[in-house]
Write the structure tokens for this entry.
Amino acid sequence: MPDLLVPLYKLPPLEPVISSLAAKGIVIRRANTFERTPINNFITENFSKQWSDENAAGLSRQPVSSFIAIEAGSIIGFGTYESTRRAYFGPTGVALSHRGQGIGTGLLLACLHGLQDLGYAYGIIGSAGPVDFYCKTVNAIVIPDSESGIYTNLLKKRVE
């Protein structure tokens, strides 16, 4: 999967997406450090321990660079930025039961606006899965010859 470059100065506004989700009872907000355990449990159970490890870095920043989506008091999605590398978005994920409702878009925009607030003009989406989604939603462009990117030198045995 290729890396993508996102021009942060062309981002769509965040507020309409957040308001639309709030009308459905879904809240997207910055995570709190004292929520580390339930957030890490959600990520590990729904995605992977590695993603939980990456997100932990975002929970250690000031300001916290991790967002969560909540419905009825339960975490249903997460997104993080500057957890893997500077100016990087991700990882991010939405519970399978809640996909297709715009939650991923809300988390993506919240995180990318967070990068913009830090002063970046461009953000990077590393090893992007849904390339077409990112291109359409945030004007991302594929970085040529970026397959595997920073993930090329992974440990041979995955840490579980």
